Amino acid sequence: MHYNFNKDLQDGQLAEREAIEKLQIHFPEISDFRQCNTKDYDIEGMMDGQPITFEVKNDLMAHQTGNVAIEYECRGKASGLVTTSANFWIYKFNNTFFLFETKILRERLFSEKKYFRKVTGGDEGSFTKMYLVKVAEFRTWGMELD
After folding, report:
1. What is the pLDDT of residues 58-76, one digit of tens each?
2. Across-strand partners of 31?
3. Left if phi > 0, otherwise alpha if psi is -120 to 50, otherwise beta: which for 65?
4. Alpha-carbon gap, residue 52 to 72, rounded angstroms
5. Is the pLDDT of residue 1 over 60?
6. Contact between residue 73 and residue 129 where contact means Cβ atoms under 8 Å apart
7. Residue 3 has pLDDT above 80, yes or no
8. 11-46 burial string, b = 16+ CB within 10 Å, else e?
9. How many CB atoms lie under 10 A from the CB of residue 109?
């Protein structure tokens, strides 16, 4: 698959808008959702006067490979799940959205080592490091947002 930053950015922003729609249905107690242009998270909402944040990932290959890729390093620096400040992660794959607590993903991957393989990929020169997790197992770690 050829990497195209602008197309991937557009796809990601669309996934963020779709995720907000899902969140509004599932969590009416969260208000004021907005997309954010920060490296820390993609969506912010308010619950009980406190911000609640979400990172959104759109995995375009999971339906073909049967694996979800979770980034933890890029260009020799910690990134992705290691550095996020988001309370929750939302993964879109195969047109389905799943919600995960960030702390649960970290426990499963960093402490319990529930991934089946580490790989390097991403755009040329990025040397992006990722954990691969079987979709069937990954789904059990969170909840589907239908």
Report:
1. 998 999 999 999 999 999 9
2. 46
3. alpha
4. 22
5. no
6. yes
7. no
8. eeeebbebbbebbeeeeeebeebeeeeeeebbbbbe
9. 18
φ, ψ of residue 51 in degrees (nearest 5) = -70, 145
**119 — phi, psi (to 5°)?**
-135, 165
Can you spell out the DSSP letters for 79-122? -GGGT---SEEEEEETTEEEEEEHHHHHIIIIIS---SEEEEES
* Spatial separation of the C-alpha atoms in residues 76 and 126, rounded to whole Å: 8
Whether this model's pTM surpasses 0.85 = yes
Contacts of residue 60, defined as CB under 8 A and 6 or more positions apart, other chains included, come to 1, 11, 93
CA-derived radius of gyration, the chain: 15
Element (H, E) at 59: none
**In sequence order, which residues have a C-beta less than 8 Å from that of residue 40 and are 6 or more positions away?**
53, 84, 85, 86
Its CATH architecture, for the domain 5-145, is 3-Layer(aba) Sandwich (3.40)
Residue 113, CB-side half-sphere exposure with 13 Å CA sphere: 2
Backbone angles phi, psi at 64, to 5 degrees: -90, -40
